[in-house]
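User: Prepilin-type N-terminal cleavage/methylation domain-containing protein. Structure?
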Amino acid sequence: MEYSLRVSDRCVFKGGGTTGASQRTKHRCRIPRPHAHARGFTLVELLVALVAMALMALMGWRGLDSMMRSQQYTQAHTDAHAVMQTALAQWSADLDGLMALDNTQAIAWDGQALRMTRRNAVAPEAGALVVAWTRRTSQGSDQWLRWQSPPVRTRNEWNDAWNQAGLWARNPSAEQRTRETALFPLANWSIYFFRDGAWSNPQSSDASTSAASDAASAAAAAAAAAAASTTGTTTDATTTNTGTMAGTTAASGTAANAIPDGVRIVLELAPGSGLSGRLIRDWVNPLRQNMRS
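Assistant: Predicted structure:
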């Protein structure tokens, strides 16, 4: 390739001078070099780079999504566990507060709901409470529910609250729903009472309870008959007091027998609710435990 020298381009000789001064002197000239053209990426290289960046972005998104899902699962599990602990604590508190009142039922299971008569821990002077536990469809799924009545002070108020608890477990009204609390999803549950040294179905123990009540009534009647047949004022008074004490003792024994020695609950937790599997919880009657100790 030939290059033309401009006027400003000069060749410098070792001996000094300018171009044309001496052809015999070896010289060197500064010859301009052509500029190299900048080379860019080809289309294939750009496509490969875009694919690599897309794969890296996808891997980053999958990792972030996995972390978010893990956090949500952990939070749901923690919340479900806290709700279950609170519900079971309330369950134990209701059983610990059972009251065996005259002409009432302390606890009863009808196959759908477990109803209890318990003390009012917040305001004892206001009266007793009737509470009920059941499993029923609520909020679109089967839930474990608890219902509580207003304080009751008379037999009629207790009877009305007891009947309302039974109706609430099957076909609740709008007013009854306002007094219920949905606890957590529940697939199934079952109740067992510990009586006569064995666990049994609560409904099968009704006959033994009735027999105990009949025995207590017979004992009271026999004591009254013995008091009536005794002669003498002093003897009559003494025998009457004895008969009254016997009747009171029999009634107390019947009231104590109304509360079982223990209650077992078996919960089948619904899958997908944060917790799953089977949970068994036993309650021991503290009065029975103290009597045996």
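The helical segments are 43-96, 155-170, 174-177, 206-229, 233-257, 286-292. The CA atoms of residues 86 and 191 lie 19 Å apart.
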